[in-house]
Specification:
With 305 residues, this protein is an alpha+beta fold. It is built from nine helices and ten strands. An eight-stranded antiparallel β-barrel has the order 2-4-3-10-6-9-7-5, surrounded by seven helices. Strands 1-8 form a two-stranded antiparallel ribbon.
């Protein structure tokens, strides 16, 4: 099925004279997909067994439409959760944790999940013990977390690539002269991508599961996309491996997460249309078993488990 679909897409590009065509992005759903609110302390054990050095917790959060519980009437789930994050900032600062990146999801462009994540964040902890201190510390308004949070994924991760911090790029002109379908994105995926502002800065977040253990099959595509992203003013914010999942369940699980910042959605489409990226797209199709892509607006402020 996968190869047949790819062949049809490639033939379609040739017949219509569109030239090189990308392998299609597949809207894959997980066999098991669950978000959770409360941690199972047995699942924290692998985190505590990590080396006593900094590591990143990937937070992927879904909120209740309306907050629940006494004192939170009239608030959305996201608003109630924000009260919790504000109440725990002092404890975060005391242990030296830092926010690597956070974003508010615009759209899940590729992949299928229900409920959908609304906020994505990367928090670096100084050590496993510092993370345990946050888990066991209630903060100033712990009830606000339960009031607002529908559930989340919390995944201990190892940083693989993280450039020096830099300000978000300014919007750039459309490098490709317009939006074209020769990207590998389906019409529905393009619709989701273009649902938000197309000329404002955007973060593109990718969750990746490799077809091979090393990720070598995917590497040619990553290298081509890295180069094309730089050409349109993009920048990698963070890349890390998913090591152990503390909250939520995913089967099969993802191997890595990447966050790139682009001047605009148009610039991102320009990178996808780059000839080298198009030529390397079979490496994406062959090298990945699962691929989810989100667009997000960068946020300010700390988040925690």
């Amino acid at each position: 099925m996968k190869r047949n679909g790819m062949t049809i897409a490639l033939l379609g590009c040739l017949v219509t004279g569109l030239g090189p065509c990308a392998s299609p992005f597949e809207d894959s759903a997980l066999e098991t997909y669950e978000v959770e609110v409360f941690p199972d302390f047995q699942r924290i054990a692998p985190v505590l067994a990590r080396p006593a050095e900094p590591f990143v917790m990937a937070n992927l959060l879904a909120f209740k439409e309306l907050a629940t519980g006494e004192g939170f009437e009239g608030l959305t789930g996201a608003e109630a959760y924000q009260i919790y994050t504000e109440g725990i900032q002092e404890a975060q600062a005391a242990i030296g944790s830092r926010l690597v990146w956070a974003g508010s999801v615009r759209s899940q462009v590729v992949g299928v999940s229900e409920p959908g994540f609304e906020t994505l964040a990367l928090l670096e902890y100084a050590s496993p013990q510092s993370f345990l201190g946050i888990v066991t510390s209630p903060g100033e308004a712990p009830e606000a977390r339960t009031a607002g949070l529908l559930g989340q994924w919390l995944i201990a991760s190892t940083t693989l690539e993280e450039p020096e911090p830099s300000p978000p790029p300014t919007p750039a002109a459309d490098p490709g002269g317009g939006v074209h379908a020769v990207t590998g994105l389906s019409p529905d995926q393009l619709r989701r991508l273009l649902a938000g502002p197309v000329d404002e800065p955007v973060a593109v977040v990718e969750l990746l599961r490799f077809a091979d253990a090393s990720g070598e099959l995917y590497r040619p595509y990553r290298e081509a996309l890295d180069a094309a992203s730089e050409e349109v003013g993009g920048q990698r914010v963070w890349r890390g491996s998913f090591d152990s999942q503390v909250l939520g369940n995913a089967a099969p699980s993802f191997d890595e997460m990447e966050v790139r910042r682009y001047p605009s959605v148009r610039a991102y489409l320009g990178a996808l249309r780059d000839p080298a990226v198009l030529a390397a797209s079979p490496a994406r199709a062959d090298g990945l078993d699962l691929h989810w892509i989100y667009t997000a607006d960068e946020a300010v402020g700390g988040l925690d488990p």
